[in-house]
Design goal:
The protein is an alpha+beta fold. The chain starts with a strand and ends in a 5-residue tail after the last strand. Strand 4 and strand 5 form a beta hairpin. The protein is built from eleven helices and 16 strands.
């Protein structure tokens, strides 16, 4: 199994300068080989270009101060990017060309195979990087005993902070997915309620209002600084830190929620939303972007693979309109939050009805449980709206499970 741990680096001032110099040198090497690529169409792979690096070091002597594997990965990254563009073009996408990397637009470099080691001595962790030294690192979690480090990616964020992503590999494999999953769930995502599933769990969106207010303040201060001045650059870093706060809080929420679903259920079905298309709609695009539905689906997918859980993404069209019990489609404006079927009389929360449709489409797509009364919401397992009343659910507890409150309808 392959995975990565991301640790914060705390380099000394001298090491910080060395890291920045190495990063800028890698940027120049990238631009050098990009220039060669654009002038020589007959270059088909990165292997021949990597063989030019020893001769290149003879006249570009600064390259001798950079680990050879790091330089090889710079060239490999360039040709991997070209290959990815070609694949998109072959699929009919309108793609451009690889761009020259200006100062500040190259953010990471990579070690592989050798030149790195995580040292844990006397409670002070250090990451050895060849040609740079032993850099203090905040290794906030222990590496698995059988894990092997295959590589390290060193990255400078826009905040100016340095991070290292350790690429690890273990002999363990993901547990097998059950042939007949019993504990299944469908999830409908939204904005007011971030997730509403078929078990009645409703999780509200994470509250980022305080972080967004601080961001707006720092942006107003930035607008009054003289562009290009030292004060302007310092304020840019403050704005970047506010963005990082929002990103960190949002990803923490998404990680906890996706982990809980992946570990709790045997099968998880979600909507395959077109996030890019939704952002192009004329209103509410800010809240749609903040929801990060595509990120949630991506995290949930690989965590389900890790836990041995079935994951299926289904088309969302019609999940809100269709009745989960009889399949009759009924138009409902956004302000109508309850589903009431005129054909069969089934009543439920609007999002819960959509979640049941998502689950049924997921089961049909995987050809699992079709025709079974235990997995067919139309017959037995779809609860009615009078079964319970959701009172409050707006966060994820520190334990990683959604905070839920139910109240029986008879007590209201």
């Amino acid at each position: 199994m392959e995975f990565a741990y991301r640790f914060r680096l705390n380099p000394t001032p001298a090491q910080r300068d060395r890291l920045a110099w190495t990063l800028d040198t890698c940027r120049q090497v990238y631009n050098h080989f990009l220039h060669r690529m654009n002038r020589n169409d007959d270059i088909s792979s990165s292997f021949s270009e990597q063989n030019r690096l020893p001769d290149l070091k003879q006249w570009w002597t600064d390259l001798q101060q950079v680990n050879s594997k790091v330089l090889q990965k710079v060239v490999d990254r360039l040709y991997t990017a070209r290959s990815n563009l070609k694949k998109k073009k072959d699929k009919g996408h309108d793609v451009g060309k690889l761009k020259w990397k200006g100062n500040g637009y190259y953010h990471s470099f990579e070690y592989n195979q050798s030149g790195f080691e995580l040292k844990k001595t006397s409670g002070r962790d250090r990451l050895y990087l060849n040609k740079i030294g032993n850099v203090p690192v905040v290794a906030h979690r222990e590496l698995p005993d059988d894990a092997t480090m295959k590589g390290v990616v060193v990255k400078r964020e826009t905040t100016g902070r340095w991070y290292a992503s350790l690429q690890l590999e273990t002999n363990e494999s993901a547990p097998p997915k059950p042939d007949e999953p019993e504990n299944v769930v469908g999830i409908d995502v939204g904005i007011l309620k971030y997730a509403h599933d078929t078990d009645g769990h409703a999780v509200g969106s994470v509250d980022l209002s305080a972080e967004e207010e601080r961001l707006e303040h720092e942006q107003r201060v930035l607008s009054r600084k003289e562009h290009g001045s030292n004060n302007h650059r310092e304020q840019q870093q403050k704005v970047a830190r506010r963005y990082a706060d929002i990103k960190r809080k949002r990803r923490d929420f998404l990680h906890k929620l996706s982990t809980w679903y992946a570990k709790t259920y045997d099968l998880v079905a979600v909507e395959k939303l077109d996030a890019k298309g939704l952002l192009e709609l004329p209103s509410n695009s800010h809240n749609r972007a903040s929801a990060a539905w595509a990120t949630f689906r991506k995290l949930l997918k690989w965590k389900c693979e890790r836990e041995g859980t079935h994951f299926v993404a289904v088309e969302p069209a019609g999940t809100t309109k269709e009745c989960a019990r009889c399949g009759v489609s009924t138009d409902k404006p956004l302000w109508v939050r309850e589903h009431s079927c005129p054909a069969c009389g089934f009543e439920a929360d609007r999002d819960e009805n959509a979640a049941w449709n998502v689950l049924q489409r997921g089961l049909d797509k995987l050809n699992i449980g079709t025709g079974s009364a235990e997995s067919t919401p139309a017959e037995t397992v779809v609860p009615t709206a009078t079964a319970f009343q959701l009172v409050a659910a707006n966060h994820v507890a520190e334990t990683g499970s959604p905070t839920l409150k139910r109240e029986p309808s008879g007590e209201r």
